[in-house]
Amino acid sequence: MPEPANSPTQPPAPPDGKKSDSKAVFLGGVFVLILALAGGGYFIMSRRASADSGRNRKAAVSHAAATPPAAVVQLKPFIVNLADTDRAAYLRIAITLGLQKAWAQQGDSAGSSPMTPAIRDTILGVVTAWQSKDLLAPGGKAKLKEQILAALQKRVPDAGVIEVYLTDFLIQE
Fold first, then answer.
1. Nearest CA among 58, 62, 69 for reference residue 163
2. How far apart are the C-alpha atoms of 155 and 153, rounded to whole Å?
3. CA 119 to chain centre
4. Class of residue 43 by CB neighbours under 10 A (exposed 0-12, middle 13-18, buried 19+)
5. N or C terminus of the chain: which is more exposed, having fewer CB within 10 Å?
């Protein structure tokens, strides 16, 4: 006995071209899904790698901070004009420097050394380039300390500055 055309054992034959079109759409969708997953994996891994390098940098900074400096020098306070263009802004800042080794004191007051003028000049150059809003922003003081330290290590390497401490900080607008 012949089987009916719509028997459950055989699927109905699709019209010409429809089967190959749906297969192509399905394969294209799978391809797009694979690309999206690969891109997401790359994004996650790159974020994790940058976070790990940030942790390593913070660990190095905290390790340097964990080792106390051999000596500290308290500089006389600075009162400077900030780089605000819309209004006058002033900063009073006192800085203490952490040193690798003690300076041979050749003056009569703390912070007096033949290097002191170059140190003060370097600090003034860095601080006066800042605007008050940037200093007051989250992380502003930390960035200022990093800039001062980098500038001192570059301009006055013989000073042996390894840490910058802000001991007084007041902005007046």
1. 69
2. 6
3. 25
4. exposed
5. N
* Distance of alpha carbon 51 from alpha carbon 58, whole angstroms: 10
Token pair belonging to 46: 């790159």
Residue with tokens 């009569």: 108
DSSP per position, 91-146: EEEEEEEEESS-----SSSTT-STTHHHHHHHHHHHHTT--HHHHHSTTHHHHHHH
Q: What single-letter DSSP state applies at residue 86?
A: S
* 2-35 confidence digits (pLDDT tens): 555 555 565 555 555 556 677 778 877 887 888 7
Taking only the tens place, the pLDDT of each residue in 87-126 is 888 899 999 999 888 765 544 444 567 788 889 999 999 9
The Cα 15–Cα 64 span in angstroms is 75
For residue 42 the two structure tokens come to 């790359």
Report whether CATH 3.90.780.10 matches the domain 71-172.
Answer: no
And the tokens for 122? Answer: 């370097």
